[in-house]
Amino acid sequence: MANGFALSGCDMDLCCLVPERTKQVTSPTEFVSRLGQLIQQQSDFIVKVLGRARIPIIKLVLPDGLNCDIGFENRLALENTRLLLT
């Protein structure tokens, strides 16, 4: 969406950067797993955690069909989005 190419009905991708202090306390896999559990407990989303992927991802789906992927530490995707926006 940030690059201006979003179409009606497309899913949403978010990219989160994890603070260094968090990385010192827990592994990325554990962080993503815990966050996925919290989202599932506190919302109506169906949650699928891909914590061991090269880029850890939490996949969220609402019963009405809204999809959102939250990726972690994918700095290249952020740069590609900026490039496409330009």
Summarize this structure briefly:
This protein is of the alpha+beta class and 86 residues long.
What does this protein structure show overall?
The protein has helices at 20-25, 28-42, 75-85; strands at residues 12-16, 46-50, 57-61, 67-72. The chain is an alpha+beta fold. The protein has one domain. The protein has a four-stranded mixed sheet with strand order 1-4-3-2, sandwiched between helices. The longest helix is centred in the middle third of the chain and has 15 residues, at 28-42. The mean pLDDT is 85.
DSSP, total strands: 4
Instruction: Summarize model confidence as the mean pLDDT.
Output: 85
Give a short account of the largest sheet: 4 strands, mixed
Number of domains: 1
Spans of at least 5 consecutive residues whose pLDDT stays below 50 are: none
Helix content estimate: 25-40%
User: Approximately what portion of the residues adopt beta-strand conformation?
Assistant: 15-25%
The helix/strand order is EHHEEEH
Strand order of the largest sheet: 1-4-3-2
Radius of gyration: 14 Å
What oligomeric state do these chains adopt? Answer: single chain
Shape: flat
Termini Cα gap = 14 Å
Number of helices: 3
Class inferred from helices and paired strands: alpha+beta
